[in-house]
Give the backbone structure.
Amino acid sequence: MRAVGFFEFGGPEVLQLLDLPEGQPGPGQVRVRVHAATVNPTDTLLRNGSRAQALREVSPPHVPGMDVAGVIDAVGPDNPTDLAIGDKVMAMVDNQGSHGGYRESIVLSADAVARIPEGVSLIEAATLPMNGLTAKQSLDQLALKPGQTLAVTGAAGCYGGYVIQLAKQAGLHVIADASPADVALVRSFGADTVVPRGKDIAAQIRQVVPNGVDALADGSYQCELTLGAVRDGGGYASVRGWSMAQRGIVCHATWVRQYNHRADLLRQLRQCVHDGVITLRVADTYDPAQAAEAHRRLEAGGTRGRLVLVF
C-alpha cells in the first residue's frame, strides 16, 4: 500500500513514497480506501519537527495527514453505526506514527467516520473534517450568543473561512481581517466588516468596536498582537494553544484532537454544506509523488483553499 511519510524531520525533501502494510478493521472499525488526503499546516509542522515532542515515543516512518475522504471497503465486527461497504465517507485522522492520512488505505474507528455531503466530490469533502471541526470547536469554546461580536484573523484561510460561516449561521456579528487581494473573498464568507490585516490589527478592530469585541478566533496565530481587540472579560481562541492572562480574558486552546470520534459533529458539518452555510474550497491537487511540492507551496503562503493529495 502506498503512503507518503518521512524518517527524519526536515524540509519538504524528506517526504518520500512508502510501502506500508494494509490494515484490517477490528471490532467497531472500518477500512477506508483513501482517494483524497488534504495537506494542512499541521502536516508541515509535524514534518519539520515543530511537533516532534508528540512523536517522541513513536518509531518512524511518520505519515502526516489529518483529513481523508474515500470509500469504505471493509467493515469490522460489532459495527456501532450504519456505515457499509461502498459508502463514500470522510474523517479526521488522529495521526500517530505511520497512522496518518497520506496513505491509500486506513483503518479508523467507525464513530470517527461520516458520509460525505451529497453533490460534492471526494476531493472537496477531504477539505472539511479537520478544519471544520477546528472551527466548530473554537466557536463551542467561546460560546457566544446571537448578536455578540466575534473577530477572526486569518480569515481567508480554511479555518478562518469556516469560523466566519459558522458564526454567521449562529447569528454573530463578524469582523474579519484580509489583505487587499482577499477582501472580496472574506466578504463572500459573510463577514460584516473587513479590516486590513497587519501588526496593528487590534487597533483596526477597535476602530470598528471601540469597547472591544466579545471574542476573537486567532487563525493567523498573531497572539499578543490580537489580544488588545478583545474587551475585558471576553474570550480568545487559539489554534496553537497560546494564552496570556490579561484583563480577565478567557483564553481557550483549540485542540481539534479532542473532537476525534465525533462523527455526530461531522454530520452537522455535512448538513451545513448541504444548506449552503459552508463553502468547500480546493486550491489544487497533487499526486502523492508530488507531496514535497505541495508542502513547499503551502509553506510559501498565499494559498487560498486547500491542497489535496489524490491517491
User: Anything to note?
Assistant: The chain has a mean pLDDT of 96. The chain has two domains: 2-128+280-310, 131-256. DSSP finds nine helices and 15 strands in the chain. The two ends are 11 Å apart (CA to CA).
